[in-house]
Design a protein that fits this description.
There is one protein chain. Helix content is 49%, strand content 9%. The chain is mostly helical. It has a domain at 8-77. It has a two-stranded antiparallel sheet. A hairpin with a 2-residue loop joins strand 1 and strand 2.
Length: 136
Amino acid sequence: MVELEVTWGRTLRVWWAYLWRNLLAIILSGAVGFVGSLLLTFAMIGAGASHQSAAAIVGPAGVVLGLAFSLVPFKLILGKDFGEFRLALVSVRRPMAMPEPSFPHPEPLFADPGPVPDDAPPVLTRRGPPTFGKRV
């Protein structure tokens, strides 16, 4: 992995990729929030709540909805390919190295047993039912 310099050109490309997606999310969340707030307000007033108490619930619900919608464009640009670079999350921790075995293995642990006689008993395998006479 090669770390690139953070230049204004690269910064503007990432910013633009986020901005236009976020503007679409704002428009969408505004439309969904408007319709949802109307429905919720009318339902609360119909159930006997005052206009003030309905507004006290609908307002914060709209803020939470808007914040939730703003995460979508951010997630969309993570991992996006920008031509000469890709926006990625990279761990700051190094993976643990596997320790070398303390003793050498001169021969494989699971060697081929060789040919099987025709009168061999059935062998169960993970691939299916027992086979008779030959190992699979």
